[in-house]
Queue: 4 jobs
Job 1
Amino acid sequence: MKRRDLLLGTAGAAGALAATAAWLRPAAAPVLPPAKHTYRSDFAGTEAPLSEDGAWSNAGLDWTTVSKANGMACGTQTGSGGYNDSYARLSGFGPNQAASAVIALNPGIDHSCSHEVELLLRCTDAPHRVMAYECNLSYDGTYCEIVAWNGKFGDFAYLARGKVRRVRTGDVLKAIVQGSLISVYLNDTEVTRAEDQRHPTGDPGIGFFRRACGANSDYGFSSYTAMSW
């Protein structure tokens, strides 16, 4: 499942996720090589859409934008636009890259529908087209997934799925792609991983998704760091 309320469409997709889970063994986050390019934000100030002097962009048109306020970045969805995830991407990064973000969670979040935070890797975009690896985490820890965005709106593929305990404010979500290997960590412990070659280049970014309940500010990021080497 990419979303808590969406079942995988084919037995083949479900089998692929089961196979991934079978060979996955928890591991600590690796020590990364020296960075050639970095970006960090604590999301100070207020912006809609998120820009930070042009560092962030969103050219997709069919997907919603990210905003920031009160030291937090979050989405701008109404919850009724389908898979119009809010996203923003950086630029100038090499293909081997890592991103991490500190989670901000409203303890009174509405439990009646899906809420996700997302780290994007190797993201490229143009009007009506976005390609990326989405590394998402549900607010309640019931899933942490790697999903490939294939370009067209609503066209994505499930690559791997893990599960963690209930998420808390201050938890750190990290995602790394090196070569064809994508790995995701919560507080430096591996949650899931996948191998895929469809997106060889692109830039890191952030994303958010929710259904039509609660508020965008219920679940977001309070800081973010990206690097490539």
Note: Residues 106 and 218 are 5 Å apart (CA to CA).
Job 2
Amino acid sequence: MDHPTATLSPPSLVASTAGASRSTPDWQRRFAPRVIATDAVIVAAAVFGVQLFWFGPQRLDVSWTPFDYTTLSVFLCAVWMASLAFFGTRSPRVIGYGIAEYRAVIAASTQLFGLVAILAYLTGLDLSRGYFLLSLPVGTAMLLAGRMTCRAWLTSRRKKGSMNTRVVLVGSPDDNERVALDLARQPSAGLQVAGVHDERDGVWSNEDGERLRRRLAALDADTVLVTGGSSLDAQQIRRIGWSLESGAHHLIVAVNLTDVAGPRIHTRPVAGLPLVHVETPRYSTKQLVIKRVFDILGSAALIVLLSPVLLTLAALVRLSSPGPVFYRQERVGQGGEPFGMMKFRSMVDGADARLGELLAAQGRDGTPLFKVENDPRVTPLGRLMRKYSLDELPQLFNVLSGRMSLVGPRPQREAEVAFYDDVARRRLIVRPGMSGLWQVSGRSTLSWEDAIRLDLFYVENWSLIGDIGILARTFKAVLAPGATAH
């Protein structure tokens, strides 16, 4: 193997014409037109729909101008589409990546309407307040729904093996295996492992670069993912980048920062050093107030909307088997404080007395998750309610009273909390939730370690947009429960 200071071959330094045309991943070039078309239809439907709703079908002029509201709507649609492009909502760094994409859409829409409001004030343009104020929230909500629909389509295609970025993993065997398993668990990420390139000695030469390029071509892959820094230092990672064909190949580096979300990571070059700034988790008063207001409004609205369902389920539980309608179980909440979590009773009366016996029979009495497989205590109605998570609807009253949140770590029993180490206890920093990351990421199929990891990720990286995204995935899981619903 050559010495690491050997000169790199010229092809890695000059982008070919073909390579430049492939600077955007293939799946994004195919996905972007679908998103643009969806945005255009939604913006037009929202703006003209609000105009028709507010003014009716008659023609109406904008005050002291030669234009009517139809002309204004056309202009507003064009500017809105331009704003979505200007704020990068369809850029390769954002499109198809979920939360970052939704934030960009919200920023583009709110700043556009802020600018329109300022211009209307400065020019004295008397716009209809109803038309103006309805277009923003309706259009933004529809745009977010459209982007979520496009992302759901993208995820479904990726699960079938298409619309993926084919990557070759470069690193030690252990790092490669770890990252490959993580990517296999998340097909929606769109990174499909095409092969690996093990590096054991941490030295990168011309021959390695040539061999890697040949491997990328043979595997029809266009991306290299460096899986960790245990075997390759910063200089070697730079040399890997130099050895790739500019424009045609892409380089991704898996930074060894677990449970840190994008908004907390900022890169800043200082004296030629690519410094990565990681913000510490913050739980400001503003964040706490926003989350609590969201919980109150959301739980109250759901209680009102679902009141017929709640009353029907209460009657069915009463008629299906002897015992109370509601089941109150003590769980550990925020700060380690116990509280009574409410559920519709889904088991026979007195089922708790048999828990220890059933866990011992299945060899699970020494494990953190007190889950009984094929639990004989569950009633037929209870099994149906559990499948669709209907037994948990009374927890909306726990949310309204402030003991739980709509989204958060799953509240666990005191005996389960006894298994916590100092890291797992960070789950107790926030209120427990009706739904959470682990519930929408595998539910009963997840191990204890994975459940804790997902809950800690939520605690460390909470955001309102993240909560809305989890709730959207929750509704989808409730309406179409898979094999993980027990």
Note: The CA atoms of residues 114 and 120 lie 10 Å apart.
Job 3
Amino acid sequence: MNNEFDFLCETILHISEVKENLETISSDLLKRGHAHDRTKLQEPEFSAFVSTSEKFKKANYGSKEYQECCDVIKSAVDHHYANNRHHTGFYKDGVTDMTLMDIMEMIADWKAAERRSPDSTLNDTLELTFKKHAIEGQLQKIITNTLGYLRWL
């Protein structure tokens, strides 16, 4: 009887600790959602993105037109990447230096960006995105699995 009680107490404690850990993760992700891309609302990014917004609306991610938009406001894009940790450009070694929390915000960003693309979906651009960010192998598979699990593909 004592073994059953000890097992029950330990299991309940374990479940409670996992719940608390997941709440810590959830809290961090919620904070990231509230703060996401705020630098776009400040200079030097704001006016640069406003000046190209109409052209960006007509350009699919990865297209020549999209790249031209980025090139025109390169300093603002560089500023954005340097100040937002969910971008691989934030880190010296790109995706290798990111945390799983950064990656979760990054893929949420990819999904939201899909809405702004006139003719392509996240699934259409995923291979290009992986190549651009040097995401390979196991991490690529984990991200693809996660996007599928979330029904974002």
Note: The chain has three domains: 1-35, 37-84, 87-153.
Job 4
Amino acid sequence: MPPAESPNNPSTLYRNYVLFMLTIVYVFNFIDRQVLVILQESIKKDLHLSDAQLGFLSGFTFAIFYAVLGVPIARLADRTNRRNTITLSLGVWSIMTAVSGTARNFIQLAAARIGVGVGEAGGSPPAHAMISDYFPPRRRSTALSIYSTGIYFGTLIGYIMGGYLNQRLGWRTAFFAVGAPGIFFSLLFYGTVKEPRRGSTDTAPLPPTDTASLPPTGTTPLPPAETHTFWEVLKLLYSKKTFIFLTMATSLLVFCIYGLLNWAPSFLGRIHAMTPAERGRALGLALGIGGAIGSFTGGALTDRFGKRDRQWYLKIPAYAILLSILFAIGALYLKSNILSVVCFGCTAALQSMYLGPSLAVAHSLVPASMRALTSAVLFLALNFIGLGFGPWVVGMISDHLTPSLGVEALRSAMSIVLVISLISAMLFLRTAKTLAPSRP
């Protein structure tokens, strides 16, 4: 059990404990989200689905509710207890993951995945805001990047467990097995994590940005009761070039990430003839470990170099994305199973370096009372465009090319992300130019 702490004056130990607990919640988030990806070939065969339907299930069906509902839930979280919002959300999405195992057709599975999306909508924006209230600006990118490693540890566990259970006991059992533990963890989270005071860490000047200076509340703690409407937050965010370009850059990158990595298990099964358990272990380790290392490294590097030049918060992700294109080519076109998996892992590592720094930059644009809603607005765009359309578009292209290319159609469809990755990197560099070059 964590030491007793006051949320108004937490110790370093307790701050780290809260970060650990929030990260575990995010692990459950991605276990329940990504387990569908490792199971999709078996689901396709059992329920007689097309690639477009698979992409719709793992992308748009989930993303539309996840992204849109994230805004009102985040606004509620900015006004109420964020710990409670996260607890309830974790319970809901865990139950709906288990329910996914009962689906008998495409409509039933789509309805269950909508339920997962509804639950997960209340996870990340409140967590981002809590982290920003527990960690000061100079440590915020690193803290948010550590939290973001939950994406990749969740993918690791979901792929390995899902692949093994799918091969041994079937895809329905896999959904039950990964959904149930989150229900129990939500009770532990509720009992041991405290709600922090809003703006409690904003005691030092935040770095200036391009188009407008930060409001006075960006440098001093805010009254907990202060609230803002959605339109007030949206107006403030889109008055800043930084946020406009950041939204475009992250949205296209997430399109690439999900368009490539959500189809990686199917790619290894069709092109390299790997079994469900083999590709679950291989991709779980490659994407999980690679992505976690990349996410942490992105935060640590940007906090280190950003002390002297704010533009490094977005330049480092841009250069990482450019390098990832080479590894993505290797993943798709190398004939060796091992080299293909390793290249997928390196691609995930490099493409994962964007999230913590991007969130830190977005949070620096607004006062503390707007942070959950700011995360939700950013996630609305990047998940609707990236998660919603990335897997779906790749699936539709694969279906279109299958009559002429056969199993090679998926490789050609996945190659679209290479061009879009390049555009995303250029937009990150453009966004970096909107930041003040150095701290005052």
Note: The domain at 12-194+229-432 is CATH 1.20.1250.20 (Growth Hormone; Chain: A;).
